[in-house]
Amino acid sequence: MPNQPEHIIYSAADIERYLRGAMSAKEMHDMERAALQDPFLADAIEGFNEVPDFTIAAKHLNEIAAHIQ
What we know:
mainly alpha, 71% helix
């Protein structure tokens, strides 16, 4: 479909920028549209919204990635 947006893989840093309001209006809109199509992204945004400190979340994600490798 020619009008379908390109699939973007959002990172924890992208989610943090979104929640802090550091994205442009277009970037925020694109992420919100992607979250409507991707329940995992929507859950990630919701989960990060509950974290009081992003550095703690990043530390946990790094630990999880290290265990996977």
